[in-house]
Request: fold
Amino acid sequence: MVKKQFNVSSLSSGVFIPLMIVAGLALGFFAVRPQFKKLQGDRDLLRSKQDEKNDRESSLLSIKKLLSDVENNQSQLSSLNNALPDSPDIPGLLANLEYLAIQSGLTLSDIQIEMPKTEADPGVEATKNEISIIGVDISLSGQYSQLFALLLNLEQNQRIFDIKNIQFSEPDTGANTRSFDLSLKTYFQKNN
Reply:
């Protein structure tokens, strides 16, 4: 009987090589697949970060445009602050009224200012109104045409004035002047 010898070379070429190929593929699959999934996750994260960066850049551009618009409109905002100041600005109000009277040719004899009531005053309820009213009574003397000029100047003034009442007196004999009493209202913004 002839005994067959075990041939390792035939076994290695027939079984070991395919087995090694399958083992290499399995090892490659299980080693590379997690890295591939991690790479896909990193790509998704990169895409979301780029989208977020683009959103922030567009927001930054819109903020820069808004700041540019505010700077361009600053002159209009300063006119609003002159029309409706942040405080009563009584010295400015007095100087403004005196200048308007002199510009109109009238003689200013008296100014009475009635400050608005505040919540700190007894008997005054708190209000949500952000604009306060200052009452002003002025006494002037001059001619009727000068009073008309004062009214035009008050109308064209940057600070807002509302005329509540005008009282006339009889003209003085010889001088052709009369006295006028005006009751005005002006406004300011409350600081909260």
The first strand starts at residue 107 and ends at 114. The radius of gyration is 44 Å. The chain has a mean pLDDT of 83.
